[in-house]
């Protein structure tokens, strides 16, 4: 239905006319001469700003101030529409999601509280924290991929079948919880509850119907909150010996809030945001990993090329044999495969925004309180932006251009175009960009590295139907893969 939004918007606007578009003079009506004069005046102003020390964005900013966040202009003979997001749109998830994540969740809280929450949790995404997270994720991934999946008797011809989604969910949950609440925590017992909350986020709000998906989600939330409260109480009791995990940092800042103006001041604020980070980080990343494995199973030549790169990476920066961020820097092609998987999978398909005021967007009149969805998926599959968008081709992100023949034939310019870079919306954009995007890419790269250096894989079931009710599109069968061990000297890192 969101794809029909422009049509619905037009119909509603026709029924109840709103003020005229906040566009430049002559933009809509007037004689052809007036329009022609307007178009060239806009172009001249743009070129003047571009050629001045203020840069072309000054042209945009001046019009933004004059006309508001959405306006029409004309550049070099073509009418353009520019839309900014600041004051007229706020992030707004479905009411069900907001209820399950909590009123203080960074994803659902008010504008003002959001700024505070974003600053408060930012510590989790600092460089040292990200480096520590890389090691943690690798330790957990190696435990499963090397420790459990590789045949123990050394028979390198035996194949193993595993469900990729289950493994990815387990590893990412372990790693994220360790970062949020420390190594030995009470969250392992509520792993299933976290999944139930995610499944309920787009369900009908039938809170009074026993057994309904939404009610099960609410009950699961209660149990997660109880486990987190227990964790907090234990820490207060033990005077918090847990060190650097996020919960410790948030609790400590709360105690010393006179020194920390950014501290979250209530227990609810802390708990809602811990739950949000688990949900925002676990299922999204695990889903992305499974799609990546599927695309690489469908494109064996790319899998082999990636394996050649991975086998060539020497883990030289860590005594324990764990992958570090520097090691990952040597996996350029893998990085592009991750990016391409994220484009094709588009885990978060659309981003909802609430119109705070009547306004106009893309020529449509938008009323206050309407929700406008930015449709990321259609951008990622727009052939005008990504040549042959249905072809999995990591090399489309090469500086020198794609090496896939079908893509190369169509492409005139080399390397990813500016439009392509701009329109890759896998992690959103602007002030609400995904906070965990580096962690997500690291998890995908580490998982890929360990799998490539231990196994070849192919899909064990070709059913491509999608899971019903899933918040993020994923295969119903959980992506079962058949693994054939490769001759490698891979060992479980020492810390595990
Ligand atoms: C492949 C994995 C991931 C994908 C595709 C993804 C995607 C996104 C997208 C598209 C948004 C913006 C949504 C919007 O503007 O409406 C977002 C926001 C967010 N993500 Fe992620 N994400 C991923 C992993 C993670 C991880 C690992 C974490 C943290 C542990 C995380 C934490 C967040 C947070 C806190 C926000 C809200 C930011 C704000 O509103 O200020 N994400 N994510």
From TrEMBL:
<dbReference type="GO" id="GO:0010268">
    <property type="term" value="P:brassinosteroid homeostasis"/>
</dbReference>
<feature type="region of interest" description="Disordered">
    <location>
        <begin position="397"/>
        <end position="416"/>
    </location>
</feature>
<dbReference type="InterPro" id="IPR001128">
    <property type="entry name" value="Cyt_P450"/>
</dbReference>
<dbReference type="GO" id="GO:0005506">
    <property type="term" value="F:iron ion binding"/>
</dbReference>
<keyword id="KW-0349">Heme</keyword>
<feature type="binding site" description="axial binding residue">
    <location>
        <position position="434"/>
    </location>
    <ligand>
        <name>heme</name>
    </ligand>
</feature>
<dbReference type="GO" id="GO:0016132">
    <property type="term" value="P:brassinosteroid biosynthetic process"/>
</dbReference>
<keyword id="KW-0732">Signal</keyword>
<dbReference type="GO" id="GO:0016125">
    <property type="term" value="P:sterol metabolic process"/>
</dbReference>
<dbReference type="InterPro" id="IPR036396">
    <property type="entry name" value="Cyt_P450_sf"/>
</dbReference>
<dbReference type="GO" id="GO:0004497">
    <property type="term" value="F:monooxygenase activity"/>
</dbReference>
<keyword id="KW-0408">Iron</keyword>
<comment type="similarity">
    <text>Belongs to the cytochrome P450 family.</text>
</comment>
<dbReference type="GO" id="GO:0016705">
    <property type="term" value="F:oxidoreductase activity, acting on paired donors, with incorporation or reduction of molecular oxygen"/>
</dbReference>
<keyword id="KW-0479">Metal-binding</keyword>
<dbReference type="InterPro" id="IPR017972">
    <property type="entry name" value="Cyt_P450_CS"/>
</dbReference>
<keyword id="KW-0503">Monooxygenase</keyword>
<dbReference type="GO" id="GO:0020037">
    <property type="term" value="F:heme binding"/>
</dbReference>
<keyword id="KW-0560">Oxidoreductase</keyword>
<protein>
    <submittedName>
        <fullName>Uncharacterized protein</fullName>
    </submittedName>
</protein>
<dbReference type="Pfam" id="PF00067">
    <property type="entry name" value="p450"/>
</dbReference>
<dbReference type="InterPro" id="IPR002403">
    <property type="entry name" value="Cyt_P450_E_grp-IV"/>
</dbReference>
């Amino acid at each position: 239905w969101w794809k029909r939004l422009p049509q619905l918007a037009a119909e509603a606007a026709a029924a109840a006319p709103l003020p005229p578009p906040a566009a430049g003079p002559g933009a809509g009506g007037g004689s052809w001469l007036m329009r022609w004069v307007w178009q060239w005046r806009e172009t001249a102003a743009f070129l003047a700003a571009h050629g001045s020390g203020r840069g072309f964005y000054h042209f945009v900013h001046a019009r933004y101030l004059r006309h508001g966040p959405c306006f029409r202009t004309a550049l070099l003979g073509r009418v353009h529409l520019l839309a900014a997001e600041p004051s007229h749109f706020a992030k707004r998830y479905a009411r069900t999601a907001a209820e399950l994540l909590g009123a203080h969740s960074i994803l659902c809280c008010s504008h003002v509280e959001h700024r505070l929450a974003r600053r408060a949790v930012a510590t989790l995404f600092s460089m040292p924290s990200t480096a520590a997270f890389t090691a943690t994720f690798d330790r957990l991934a190696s435990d499963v991929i090397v420790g459990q999946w590789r045949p123990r008797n050394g028979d390198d011809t035996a194949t193993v079948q595993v469900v990729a989604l289950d493994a990815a969910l387990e590893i990412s949950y372990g790693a994220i919880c360790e970062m949020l609440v420390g190594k030995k925590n009470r969250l392992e017992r509520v792993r299933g509850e976290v999944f139930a909350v995610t499944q309920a986020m787009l369900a009908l709000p039938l809170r009074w119907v026993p057994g309904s998906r939404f009610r099960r989600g609410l009950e699961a939330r209660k149990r997660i909150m109880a486990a987190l409260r227990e964790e907090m109480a234990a820490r207060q009791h033990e005077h918090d010996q847990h060190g650097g995990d996020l919960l410790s940092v948030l609790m400590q800042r709360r105690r010393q809030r006179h020194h920390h103006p950014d501290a979250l001041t209530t227990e609810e604020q802390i708990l809602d945001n811990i739950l949000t980070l688990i949900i925002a980080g676990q299922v999204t990343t695990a889903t992305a990993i499974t799609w990546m494995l599927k695309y690489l199973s469908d494109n064996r030549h790319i899998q082999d090329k990636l394996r050649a790169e991975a086998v060539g990476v020497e883990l030289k920066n860590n005594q324990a044999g764990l992958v570090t961020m520097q090691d990952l820097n040597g996996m350029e092609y893998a990085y592009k495969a991750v990016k391409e998987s994220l484009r094709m999978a588009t885990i978060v398909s659309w981003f909802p925004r609430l119109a705070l005021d009547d306004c106009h967007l893309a020529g449509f009149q938008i009323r206050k309180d309407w929700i406008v969805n930015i449709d990321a998926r259609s951008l990622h599959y727009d052939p005008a932006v990504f040549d042959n968008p249905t072809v999995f081709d990591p090399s489309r992100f090469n500086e020198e251009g794609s090496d896939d023949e079908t893509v190369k034939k169509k492409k005139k310019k080399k390397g990813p175009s500016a439009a392509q870079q701009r329109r890759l919306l896998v992690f959103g954009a602007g002030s609400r960009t995904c906070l965990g995007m580096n962690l997500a890419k690291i998890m995908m790269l580490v998982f890929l590295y360990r799998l490539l250096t231990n196994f070849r894989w192919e899909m064990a079931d070709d059913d491509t139907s999608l899971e019903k009710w899933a918040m993020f599109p994923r295969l119903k069968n959980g992506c079962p893969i058949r693994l054939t061990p490769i001759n490698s000297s891979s060992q479980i890192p020492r810390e595990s």
